[in-house]
Design a protein that fits this description.
Layout: H1 2-35, E1 41-44, E2 49-55, E3 59-65, E4 68-73, E5 77-80
Antiparallel strand pairs: 1-2, 1-5, 2-3, 3-4
Amino acid sequence: MPALVSTAILVLAMWFLLVRPQRRRAMEHAALLARLEVGHRVITAGGIHGVIEEIGDQTMRLAIATGTTVTVERRAIARDLDAGEPDTSVDDDGAEADG
């Protein structure tokens, strides 16, 4: 009987330490992807900064420089800089950008 109780406590601990926070992060990421719009400044999971030019079902087209666009998976978007998060990017001349 004590083994059953300790196993139950271990399962509950795993739930609160691993499963629950992961579900919360997944829901927050889904909400982030749902509120993205054309013109938003974003950062991908790979660290690429860009402006959304087009949003498709599974992909997005980002402008990363003048005349340069890339297509990325929607789920690769890590942050939306237009959602109130500070912009920590660096300008071309190496100076920190104005937030």
